[in-house]
Structures are given as C-alpha cells and as structure tokens.
Request: fold
Amino acid sequence: MTNETQHTATNWSIHIDGASNREESRAGLLLKEGEKVIAEQSLQFRNASNNQAEYEALLAGLKLAQQLRIPQITVYCDSSLVVHQIKCEYQVKDPLLEKYWLITKDLISKFSKFDIIHVPDWRTPFLNYINTGAIPNEEPNLPLFRRRASFYTVLGNTLYRRGHSQPLLKCISNEEAEDVMAETHEGVCGNHIGGRALAAKILRTRYYWPMIKRDCILKVKACDNCQKHTTLSEIPAEELHTIEVSWPFDRWGLDILGPFPKVPGQGLKKNLGEAKGEWADLIPEILWSYNTSIQSATGETPFKLVYGAEALIPVEVSVPTLRADLYDQSNNLQARIAELDLVEEERDISAIKQRARKQFIERRHNKRVVHRSFTKGDLVLRRAEEAQKPPAHDKLAPNWEGPF
Reply:
C-alpha cells in the first residue's frame, strides 16, 4: 500500500540586483530552491558603476552556487548589459567589465546548465499596452491589468500615472528611484524623515514607482545617520529573569556608596569621613524601616517571617497603642510559643504569594519584550554614554555609536 516515490528535479534560481549613486554602490542576491529562500547576501563598495554592482552580485551568487554543488541554476537579472554579455558572449570595450566577464565565464563553465533571464522594466508592460494595445502573456488577471493600466498615460515617450495628490506623477525606473530616495532623504535638501513621510514627499515631488512605500521604509531603516540618531528605546530585549535577594551582593558585588565627589585639597578627606559617618548612622533606620514594612511580594513584613510576630516599633513606646497598654508578660509568653508553632505555615503561604507575584510581574514584563539577537559578524550599534558625547553637539549628538 506504499505509494511510489516520485523524484522531482529541484529548480534553483538566483535573483540579483545592484544600484549605485555618487557616494556608494550596493548589490544584493537571493538564492532560492523553488519558492524557498536558502540564502540572502548584500554587498557594499565604493566607486563602482551600476553594471559593476550587478556583476559583483552575479559573481557572489555563482560562487555560492558552486560551493553548494548546484548542477543547474537560473539567474534573474535586470541589467541588460550583464544579460546580453553573458547570454550572447558579447565583449565590451571597458577593460574592467571585460575582467568581470572573464571571471564570470570561468564560473559558468562549471555548471551543466546556466540561463540568465532579463527582468524587464516595470514600466514596459504599461507602455506596450498604451502604445500598441499588447497585453503581457504572463499576466494572470487581464481585467485587473486593464484597470491598472487605465491610470497611466504617455506624454512624449514618458510614462505618467494619474495620481490623487498630484495631477501627473512621473514613472521612474528602480535605478532612478534609488537616486531620488537618496537625494530626498539625505541630500542637500534632505532632513532624514521617516519612511512614510519620505514616500509622501516623493509623491509631492511628482515621482512614482509601484513599491514606493516599501522601498522608502527600507531606505530609512538602512540609513546610517538615522540609526545613530534614533531615539533610545526602553523596550526590554529579553524576558524577565527572577533572582534571589542575595545575588546583588553575593554574585555581582555592587557598590552601594558609589563614587564619592571630587573635592580639591584637604576637603576630600573631610567629605569622605562625613559621608561614611552619615551612612553608618542611617543603617539602623533603613533596616528597621524595611523589616517592619509589609512587602507586596509576600503580604507580610520580613520581621514577622523571621521571628513569627510583628515588631514593636519605637513610636508605640512614646505613644502607647492598645497592645502596649494591655501587655502581660505571662500571656505574651504563651502567645509567643503558639506563634512559633504557626510560623512555618506563614512562611509557606508567603513563599507561594511571592512566586505568584513574580509570575505576574514576569508575564507583564514579557508582553513588552521585543527580542534582539546578534550573530557573529553582525554590525551593531552601541548606546552612546552621555559623558562621551561631544559637549558642543548638545542635542544634535548621536544617541548610538559604531558600528562594532
């Protein structure tokens, strides 16, 4: 009754993309096994053109596929130069690009089958439909495509979209979108606004592309200055760990007094002596205040849990209460013996209340937790200490430093 095992060939694919501007160049690749993402990689370098960035992403993807011993793979790329050069073995005059081609050709020879598919510009289907009435063959929903195409128009070979905020929005390519986002966000007139505000500002400038909101949010998240000047988050990153009362003294060795004030000359010794004297004088008051106060975790005073009865505080001597006026030594001794027999039960009940209180606090704390984890090789920012911030920067000083 066992079904026959069917062996299906795995479809491996690499999706690469690159972009460059005046400051830097970036490239990224996505290695997929069918619809499952196996690996993601991003590259960043300086003084590289957009085509060179595409080549870097292609080389990284081919090396990764070679390490995984993938016999057959399909590469998706939106660079016409890279696609035509590899697909048709077209030689370019640029010596740097020719060097890239020689390296890529050597890697391609190690695969049994290697195809590069050119991903067309997102504007091409709409331009073809408006100019010639042609509908893309791979379009699954024709009525939806026609409805979307009705929002577009062509003026002088340039595609525009009819918008709600502006009459006509110029449709730009992905490469142009990178330049527009960079200039609007961190250019001469940029003010490092948030992702949604950045998308709205670009729309007011009359530019448009389909993923404008998503790309703007990702742009802001990856901005170095935005990360370093972001507000300090008080949201916990780890779940609550309950500790024993003695841990701060037994394991961590906390300094209760802290650093003493710096005073020049002989005044330092005098102030140290006064500080030590004040601390010693306050110890009995602090301990008596703590031990005779009901704790929220147990519902009892620490004094009662230790000795089985409530302490007689000094105010009851100077201003007598009812139990002080009715004090009888013989009756007190009998009551004391009974309380000692019952103290274990009181301690057990208090321990249960303490555990329940800790669980309640732990649940309330864990609801606010936003987990942050780092792996080896990650670039992370560290919270900048107030003492290390340049005084001249004042409020403009970054809250985070790094990366490390």
User: Anything to note?
Assistant: The radius of gyration is 36 Å.
